[in-house]
Amino acid sequence: MIEVAKSTEEKTDKTDEEYLDLESTEEDREDQPDRESETEDESARLEELEEELKEKEETIQELKDRIRHLKADFDNYRKRQTSKKDEKVTREKGELIKDLVPLYDNLDRAFKSFEKNDDKDSFVEGVEKIYAQFAEFLEKRDIEPIKAEGEKFDPKKHEALMKVESDDHKHNEITEEFERGYTYKDKVLKPSKVKVNIKPSDSEGNGDN
């Protein structure tokens, strides 16, 4: 009887274990579709991210190509502008020389004529005409002489080579011009070199330099 009871208990325990194993297997089977679904979702998401990354890389490459093309276009534009500027400067210099050469030729002829004929009056008359041509040449190009003698000293347009003290002139008045200055389109090409009157008493009283 005791052995039969043990055998029955062993069978019961074994049946319980098999039942538990069966339940566990059924649970695993029930969980398996969920895990497979999660794996599929992860794979789909990974593929989606890879596709987005690929698109972004293509966009970046397109932007790089565009920047490279824009830089090349800008370099070409700059070269063209520089070339046009150089051509303009060369053309203007050519026109300037073309207008200066006849004046030089006239002056050369005047000297040669004076050497042959020793006619001072004709020589002076010829030089005066050439001087007038030079004045016209400068005027056409907006090159004007700077007024100096009798004017108030302006350090922007005048360069003082000498200072004097005289009661016959106002303080800071230019009394003599040593070398004429010129402006080009209201910009100083070269300042006039002048002598300036300085009155110490007026300078101290007015605070002028």
Structure description:
This protein is an alpha+beta fold. Helices cover 69% and strands 14% of the residues. The chain has helices spanning 2-117, 120-140, 200-206; strands at 143-145, 158-164, 174-179, 182-184, 187-190, 192-197. It has a three-stranded antiparallel sheet. Strand 4 (182-184) and strand 5 form a beta hairpin. Helix 1 (2-117) packs antiparallel against helix 2. The radius of gyration is 51 Å and the shape is elongated. The protein starts with a helix and ends with a helix.
CATH architecture of the domain at 146-209: Roll
Q: Number of DSSP strands?
A: 6
Which structural category do the helix and sheet elements fall into?
Answer: alpha+beta
Task: Please state how the strands of the largest beta sheet are arranged side by side.
Answer: 1-4-5
Relative helix content: 55-70%
Q: What is the tally of helical segments?
A: 3
Enumerate the spans where pLDDT stays under 50 for 5 or more consecutive residues.
Answer: 1-6, 203-209
Q: Distance N terminus to C terminus?
A: 140 Å
The CATH topology of the domain at 146-209 is what?
Nucleotide Exchange Factor Grpe, Chain A, domain 2
